[in-house]
């Protein structure tokens, strides 16, 4: 017989896949002797069994649950449904990977009309017992029968209004008994069945609901957003209840062993007196800082501090601990590695190294590349900020700064963001339904909830700015207004700016400035450099981009797109003259102007690069991209060139293409008009000579795009070499430089052994290669890729993460064939995958020399490049 | 020391690569005892040496020539430059592969002011000797110094006019002496040097000129058109002259051992009395039929007939023999396998099998697949022809029929053809400069020249209709007019029709009807079927195409493009309604109409196919291809669908794509709108069920286009299978059918092992695969491929002949990976390469099951498929 159910004492922290994260940690904590309420875990295998059998909970499994329930009754001395000493349990989901708030939890299960009397008998506290019962009915109705919570809330509000109560705590036992009756009627009305009085029926329904919640839409979206395997399934933890809502010596809270926002080494947390755990997370009441617990319940506080230290030393990472104090006795309900901001992530990891708890390698492994972005994001420009009008201040829930237009509804925020707007999502409090809206927004602002509210936790996970619990504003979600204390009213579409590090909300947009990094981050990145093998270069076309990238650790330019230099206003006229030229003479005249302009750019880049390699791609896009469309621009071009408007229009028409991506572009331009690349090669080498004459080092790499055959490369290369040699002869100098090719056409991969004979380097242009390998146009795929994702045909967007099975196989072929012909060939990547961590893993394993990415992704790429080395070492050790 | 020069007696017919075709045959003929004028051959190695040394004839080689010249003087008893008994030689090019008229020839070399006296002394014929001298100066001037022939012709015309002569033969020795002086003056004037009197200087210059002629532009074009290796080089044959222009007992001619136009077994040829060979080929005088030689010079005639038989039995193929009769003595100057029409090619090969001279396999090998087209080309519709007005009748120089607009200049013909016009090239006589114009024209009409004139030979080689020597019309190339005997004037752009099998020229266009094949052809094709291994299927969308193809031996449909059925006028309205539908319901209503229409088509195709496999590709092109552009069509669509014009325009805009080739098409349509393929699958299987109910066999193959991953195919296949199963369940029947995929995307090749798990067949769509592998759009590549060809970057158009190194390597990968997963998978080709002989060779070697091509290419494909088997067997025997 298969075993599906485990006592906490049977598990350990290494059994996450089977017991879920929560179950494994409850087991671990139980085993290291912490005060964990007793219980057991139904493993994820049972969830799989449930799904494989058309959402049916097998009798076999339920029998096993009952056996363990019996043990729990023995251990606690309580009995399910007893009117003297009833056993109440929590039923919580717990997946192998944390999905906070994504799935369902039921507390106080076991309460019924009889057991609530037993609870009163035990606790001598009718109010809190009855309150627990009415909460249970509400929660059970919501989770098991999908009865909207607001129905229950309405009934609660009604009775409070009738009695003139401000707080829930003012409700008398009588009020609560009436409320329980109303709740049971509501349940019958909306749930089509009476509220089940039998605790075992409650339990069975609750377990089924937890299993069902694995497939609920918000969980599915969350898994998709976070790359979580949908086959894991969830475990169910059944645990004896403890009660934080039994008076003023009771309470509940959350403690982080370090500050999850800054990384500071100090216990950080919040608690609510006389409350159950859900009250803290839901953000309905604003909790107090953990430090206040010390004066309130000093024993429990000190025990909690000790537990924090114990747990951190045990797990060797910052812990996020849920605790409840029942009549001064501390219970630990859960611990897990705490979610944290990027800044905290770096600081905690580096501090743990300094404290001798983990190694440098371990620190590197712990940083999530996805989070690094957050560190590098801009903050407000100081001077602009000084002029900023502060509307309100809330909690600094997730750092960073952002400006955008306010939207009060997640789906409207998504729609606006899809139209290209910068959006700030404004809600009284967020819930898992808002996930997609949060993902698409620049930042989140809430009026309710604390630093550990849903909005705060999720925003930190996303590396997104968040100001939470901003009680100085009044948010009306229906009217779509914010009214500030000072009486200012903002409406949908109005602009605000948020500073997630100070909690300040500003009126209007505020200029942003670049991120400042340093300290812990720099220290970590130095360790990264010692580990990584790939060079990280930058895709940069401007001095500014290059400066930023070098600041972030770029080791050269991997892709300078010369055509970006062609679009400058004062240049485009010459580009257009070059294109419409009807004779070689005419074309050369325009090219001569462009050459001087390009030289200015190259000289600047070479100066900043200080001898780092600068890879310059020669003209790539189809010529018609440069031609004007507006009548007046066409007329100007006619004037500039002395042609008639009709002639210009004819030429524009001639250059139009059915499929420009597959058309007359890249080195094909140089086959028909060799003088274009010759001009560019001259501009590059004359600039290099000038830098050399200034006594500086310079190393240009001339890259020929869109090569499909050796013959094509040989022809174009020969033309370029002649131009370069003429400069060397004239200037009586010889500079080192390389000529190589983009590998971005499938045929180039297949015939890489031939092409390698003509190339000094290969640079994989994985954007175009993905387009051609899939036959997907990036510009058009938006029409069908969403269906591919919905139907599970494509797991990830191949334009973001390299498709290793297809595109990757071609890259691999090109690498091995290229090396066959030229074993020492320099190979790198300049497509956007060069900044994607998963893709970087693949490129490292192919033994490439470098990847190149946008400036802000340079640190991410560095980190990913180090992590893959560590991963490899680990695998080697396992073998 | 390397040997560069060979006596005729040192060579044999197997030494073509070294001695050239002409040299090898002169050697062979010499060795079998035929009356060949003595001489020697400078091998192709010398040409290579010449080209490798910057067009310099090495002294070493020239020394060797002089040694052999000495031997020739001894053998003939004549001496170079002697004023008593001078040696005159011909200097002719001769490449390993025949390039008729492409390169240069010089006759009567050795004549100078002194030697001509020696010739007169010897021949006692001052007129013919002086005539030879003046011809030599003209030819030498033309070939060596590039002096235009018309300069010399003008001088000749002038003297004839002054003297009132009609024929060249009326010129007196005095006239000729004057003419020689004039010619030498012309030579000095235009050649910048005096005409060289030293025969050795003449010889050196002539040899150099022949070597130079290998690289002349028309030879380069000819090699490109005929796929001849440009590295072969040419040999030079130096041979003692014999003289057909020494009176009425002398003459020159050409004999084919069989009729090169029909293949009939009877010597066929032409001769001119008192003329040199060039007169026949150049078509300046119209020669007499060979049969007339019998009465004129009976001994020479009988010896010629004996020689024909001897040579055909020796070479076991129809021979094309050049002969000269000098004072009743027959000399054989050249023999080679005779160029022939497709019809003759088939008839000669089959007859030779019947005569027991060659095997069936040899017959198959001898048919040039390129020529087969000609046999299958249409002829005039009989009734239309009866009404046709005959303008004139010329020689039936190359069979077939064609209509088109007349052009008088090759480059204008090319320009008109490039604009899509059907063009007939009209010239007094054609020359090698006209090659490209001839290639682009439907047919060629000349006023001068015989059956062996340049126009006739080249047209037959191209499989193009030609009427030559049509002296009933007067062609004015300058005025661009034809004036007929009956006084009708035609101008550039007027339409005529030519029948190359009767020599008739008709006014206007005449309806064409399909080719009739049978007899010898059918017999040959039966032998072909016994040899070939590949099945040959047809790409057919209509009953007519399928009927034609089955008549030509197609073994099934390899590609039925369902979208072609969508364009019919009465259907397109429903297609458009389907596309602009905004709900599934709306879309399904339009699809229901289309389904009934598609069923009509499929039922017809299945009936004609009679159980042969019918491969139907589901909808492939982007939807916007079906949408209207004209305002009135947009309005109609708005009416049909009850939408506003603005809504329709919006939808049309939405569907526009930047790169439609890489856009929302193929199975991507079925991922977003599964109901489209479901409708098509239903139409196919309901049609199949109906055919089955009629008691006929039926075998549909459902082909899913543009698949890039296994998951994509699995999804679409599942949708289709459900639809098909529903029909089987409803109709209580089970029919065999296959579902498979096009392999036309590089990723599909790379992941073919995965895709094979979901496919019952692979059909390679080599058109799209070539586009994506090269990144070349077929619609746009016209802008740069010509440069690629000019610069030698691309040897052949990859859209015509499969690029085996790149695209072919991907096909090979897909085949081997596909077989790994599914060893018995059915694999074929449905791209246009399926009808290209060289590509068919490659597909056969991959062991594919079939190729599919357009109806008229089916016989070509069959032949190519047999030839590759024979080639393989030959290679196996060699091993």
From TrEMBL, chains A, B:
Sorted UniProt keywords:
ATP-binding, Kinase, Magnesium, Metal-binding, Nucleotide-binding, Pyruvate, Transferase
EC number(s) in its UniProt entry?
Answer: 2.7.9.1
Q: Where does Mg(2+) bind?
A: 744, 768
| Reaction catalyzed | pyruvate + phosphate + ATP = phosphoenolpyruvate + AMP + diphosphate + H(+)
Domain called PEP-utilising enzyme C-terminal: residue spans: 520-868
Q: Which residues form the PEP-utilising enzyme mobile domain?
A: 421-503
Gene3D superfamilies linked = 1.20.80.30, ATP-grasp fold, A domain, ATP-grasp fold, B domain, Phosphoenolpyruvate-binding domains, Phosphohistidine domain, Pyruvate Phosphate Dikinase, domain 2
Instruction: Please give one Pfam family short name.
Output: PEP-utilizers_C
One function term, GO molecular function aspect: pyruvate, phosphate dikinase activity
Residue numbers annotated as active site:
454 (tele-phosphohistidine intermediate), 830 (proton donor)
Residues annotated as binding substrate are: 561, 617, 744, 765-768
The protein's required cofactors = Mg(2+)
Q: Which residues form the Pyruvate phosphate dikinase AMP/ATP-binding domain?
A: 57-295, 302-351
Q: Which family does it belong to?
A: Belongs to the PEP-utilizing enzyme family.
This chain belongs to the protein called: Pyruvate, phosphate dikinase
Q: Organism source for this protein? A: Listeria kieliensis
Question: Highest lineage ranks of the organism?
Answer: Bacteria, Bacillati, Bacillota, Bacilli, Bacillales
